[in-house]
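// run 5 | inverse folding | seed 20
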């Protein structure tokens, strides 16, 4: 439609590059898991490492990358530093993908007689 703003046609090369960079960061299973856990609520590095099943130094390195990209932020809570997802839209995208995959798994299980 002439004059209609459909959004997708308005993407600049810079915006596409930025989106690709964010998806690239989330292409790491561990970073995606970290974002997923943080989407449920803020965590300190120790708790986060325990939940994602990775050593604290590894989790810290991934958090640094996510923080540098502006996807998570940290704050002091007493003597602890806690991390949280800094972008509610990112939480929505991650949850949407996880829920989508869960629905696909449920549908596949039902088709194969594995569901409840």
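// decoded
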């Amino acid at each position: 439609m002439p004059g209609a703003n459909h959004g997708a046609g308005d993407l600049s090369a810079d915006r596409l590059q930025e989106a690709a960079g964010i998806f690239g960061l989330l292409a790491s299973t561990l970073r995606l898991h970290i974002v997923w856990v943080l989407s449920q609520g803020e965590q300190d590095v120790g708790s986060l490492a325990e939940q994602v099943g990775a050593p604290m130094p590894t989790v810290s390195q991934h958090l640094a990358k996510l923080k540098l990209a502006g996807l998570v932020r940290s704050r002091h809570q007493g003597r602890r530093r806690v991390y949280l997802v800094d972008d509610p839209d990112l939480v929505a995208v991650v949850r949407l993908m996880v829920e989508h995959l869960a629905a696909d798994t449920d549908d596949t299980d039902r088709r194969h007689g594995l569901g409840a």
